[in-house]
Automatic annotation (TrEMBL):
Transmembrane segments: none annotated. InterPro entries: CHP02241 (IPR011747), Phage_T4_Gp19 (IPR010667). This is Phage tail protein. The lineage of its organism: Bacteria, Bacillati, Actinomycetota, Actinomycetes, Micromonosporales.
Length: 165
């Protein structure tokens, strides 16, 4: 082997733990929103209700069946800026003109460059808004909160394969 050549990388051994993704490396993509500096996303989830029933003639056996599927609202926290995009989206819902948009939450690698996971919120719309707490004694960034209702959740791995919930 020439002195400048590196030895081949050994294969990953069974039981080797891969580093988990970092929770702070993410970005949001909301159709028709050009600005947004998001600091936190919470509430990604799906719930399948359980329906229990007893087997006829055998009261000791209780079966569980999947029932209604629900998606909890997703809460976005973001730094207050002069952009009106999110506010205008909220105000259209307040006026009764709900504008449903697809929202993507994109997880990035440790370097913050490459997309490794993506969650897509289907037909999302603003359900709640909370203004930033104002405190004259604080030096913190003003953080607003926007809560989105949505009709479905998809998860895509870095390669783009989709798993719908």
């Amino acid at each position: 082997m020439p002195a400048s050549a590196k030895p081949p990388t050994p294969p990953v051994q069974p039981g080797t733990v891969a580093d988990p993704y970092r929770a702070y490396n993410f970005k949001l993509i909301i159709s028709n929103v050009t600005e947004g500096h998001f600091t936190e996303v919470a509430g990604l989830g799906v719930k399948v209700e359980r329906i229990s029933y007893r087997e006829a003639g055998n009261s000791s056996v209780v079966h569980a069946l999947p029932g209604r599927v629900t998606y909890p609202p997703v809460t976005l926290r973001f730094g207050l800026t002069s952009s009106q995009d999110l506010w205008n989206w909220l105000m259209s819902a307040v006026d009764g003109n709900v504008s449903r948009r697809n929202v993507s939450i994109v997880m990035l690698d440790a370097a913050g460059v490459t997309e490794v996971l993506r969650w897509n919120l289907i037909n999302a719309w603003p359900q709640e808004w909370y203004g930033a707490p104002l405190d004259a004694m604080s030096r913190e960034v003003a953080i607003e909160t926007l809560v989105l209702a949505h009709e479905g959740l998809q998860r895509e791995a870095g390669g783009g394969s989709t798993a719908a919930a």
